[in-house]
Amino acid sequence: MNSKIRLELITRQGCHLCDEAQDALAGVIARFSNEHPSAAYTVESIDIDGRPELLAKYSDEVPVLLLNDKQIAFLRLDSERVYDRLVSIL
What we know:
The chain is of the alpha+beta class. 41% of the residues lie in helices and 28% in strands.
C-alpha cells in the first residue's frame, strides 16, 4: 500500500457539529487502522478561525473534512461514506 492518506478536519471553537465530527472521525480511524494496519495516514484538526484562507472558503460549511486536499464531507460526517472513501484510495 503506497498511498499516503492525509485527512484534515476543519473545525472551530464552540461548534457542536465539529465535536460530533471529531467523534465520528475517531471511530472511522479506529476501524480503518484496525482493518488496514499497514496503511499510512495522518489526521490533523485545523481551527478555521486561525486560517484566513480556509475561513474565506469554508466558513459556512464547518466542520469540513478534506481527504488529500479534496472536500469529502461537511456539516455532518457519514462515517460509512468516509470509511469507504479511505478504503477506495488504498
